[in-house]
Amino acid sequence: MKRKADVILLMILLFVSLPSFGQKTEHFYNVDQEIRIEGKIQKIVMEPRYKDNSPFLIVTLEEKDTKKLYTVEISPVGFFDQDFHKGEHLIVTGSLTSSGEKKMNIIAREVQSKGETFILRDKHGFPTWRGGKGLMGRKGKRKGKRF
C-alpha cells in the first residue's frame, strides 16, 4: 500500500513539473544587479527573445580588460535605429541576468556609442519602447554625453 502511494505521489510531481520542463527561465531587469562594461562588439544577431514580439538586437561584447564575453540584449529591432558593427567600441550599463564561467548575460539600460548615449530603459529598468514614464514611446532617447 505504501509503495502504491509513493508511485502516485511521484506521478503527480512529474505531471506538475512537465509544463515547465525544458523552458527557458524568464529574465527580468534587476537594478540590484546593474553593472557597467566597456568593450568591443564580437557578434551581432537578431533573435526572438519573447513570445509574440519582434526579434531583439543582441550583441556579443568582449570586455576590454578581462576579455570576458557578454551577451547583451539591446532592444526590439524596430525600436533601435543605430547601426552597430563588429569591432566597434561600446559602453553598456545594464542588469546582469546570469553569470557563469562561459556565459554572461546583460539586459541593457543604456548604451554609449560614437559619442552618443542611448537610453533603452528608465532607471527602474522599464523599457522605453513601451512608452515608459515621460518617454512617450520615442525611439532611442539620446543624450549628448561623450565617452
What is the mean predicted local confidence, pLDDT?
A: 77
Count of helical segments?
1
Output the radius of gyration: 20 Å
Query: Would you tell me which CATH topology applies?
Result: OB fold (Dihydrolipoamide Acetyltransferase, E2P)
- Write the CATH architecture name: Beta Barrel
Structure description:
11% of the residues lie in helices and 39% in strands. About 16% of the residues have low confidence. Strands 1-2-3-5-4 form a 5-stranded mixed barrel. With 147 residues, the protein is mainly β. The protein has a single domain, classed as Nucleic acid-binding proteins (OB fold (Dihydrolipoamide Acetyltransferase, E2P)). The chain is globular, with a radius of gyration of 20 Å.
Give a topology summary.
Blueprint: H1 2-17, E1 34-47, E2 56-63, E3 69-76, E4 89-99, E5 104-113, E6 116-119, E7 141-143
Parallel strand pairs: 3-5
Antiparallel strand pairs: 1-2, 1-4, 2-3, 4-5, 5-6, 6-7
List keywords for this structure.
147 residues; mainly beta; OB fold (Dihydrolipoamide Acetyltransferase, E2P); 1 helix; 11% helix; 39% strand
Give the structure's gist in a few sentences.
With 147 residues, this protein is mainly beta.
